[in-house]
Amino acid sequence: MKKWIIKSSINTILAIALCLTPIAIYGEDTVLFEEDFEGVKLEDSIQEQVKGAKVWTGTPPEGWEITNENPKDLGMPEWRTWAIVKLEWWTQTAGDQERTQFTSKQKDGKGIGNGAVADPDEWDDWEVNGKPEAKSDWNGHLLTPPINIKGAAAESLVLKFDSSWRPEDTQTAEITVSFDGGKEERILLYESSGVQTLATIPTLNQNEKKFNDLEQVNETLEIPIDNPADASELVISFGVIDAKNDWWWAIDNISLVSTSFDVEPKDKLAVKWAELKSIK
């Protein structure tokens, strides 16, 4: 039985043609894991033109992992892989470029304080002797610690997080999950080749829905996870892959919840729609 949930601040409703009548009674959510990055100790900036004290670090929260898959001698050092940053400083480093749509303009607190940012655009923009460096593609992953999910009912987990994604050129983002050290399973894929993104979310039966530039810079997503009933641990990976001089992916306020559903009649799809908020 599939259960799907999505809350988005974009204007476009994620319409999926499913001829099902939802009938559901909802139990309370149980929070199994959450991270807002506010407890991360930040350091001074290194080479960014906009200097800052205690605004950046390459060290994730305890138990998390950041992979460094890019050449260490190329690019702006603050952005060689994922970084935990003061989001207000991040918006200043590149002259905004719409980054503030994820920060101080929001009334509900998305993108406020610290967040995790992958920014191949800023990494690639660093110049040596007045000339941009030649660089390889940008790749990096941010992984949660193993999360205890023992006792969670099958297909009851939902990943919630705030997201700011802006495409340019070729740029790919993905979220994968792994149960008890097993094979990674993809639950989200963003693929851009210019100013459009093709979004695929398998557990929402959403395949290659098109989004234009700036339609995804301020979202709150809730993505179901098809967890097996007997799984004990879960690791979630946020990855940016094969990016060039592109834009960014910033995330914040991550939580994993277990949601109870009682659905009648059997095999019908339980659908919970949250209020859609506009970025305007």
List descriptors:
single chain, 280 residues, mainly beta, eight-stranded antiparallel sheet, seven-stranded antiparallel sheet, disordered C terminus
Total helical elements? 2
Distance between the termini: 36 Å
Number of strands: 21
pLDDT average, as an integer? 81
- What structural category arises from helix and sheet content? mainly beta
Cα shape: globular
Low-pLDDT parts are 1-27, 261-280
> What is the subunit arrangement here?
single chain
User: Can you write the helix and strand succession as a string?
Assistant: EEEEEEHEHEEEEEEEEEEEEEE
Q: Gyration radius, to the nearest Å? A: 19 Å
Please indicate the percent range of residues in DSSP E strands (runs of 2 or more).
35-45%
Q: What does the largest sheet look like?
A: 8 strands, antiparallel
Relative helix content: under 10%
Please render the helix and strand layout as text.
Elements: E1 3-6, E2 24-26, E3 30-35, E4 56-57, E5 65-66, E6 83-86, H1 87-93, E7 114-118, H2 120-124, E8 127-128, E9 131-132, E10 138-143, E11 147-148, E12 157-166, E13 170-179, E14 185-193, E15 196-201, E16 206-212, E17 219-225, E18 233-243, E19 248-258, E20 261-263, E21 270-273
Parallel strand pairs: 1-21
Antiparallel strand pairs: 2-20, 3-19, 4-6, 5-10, 6-7, 7-19, 8-9, 10-18, 11-18, 12-17, 12-19, 13-14, 13-18, 14-15, 15-16
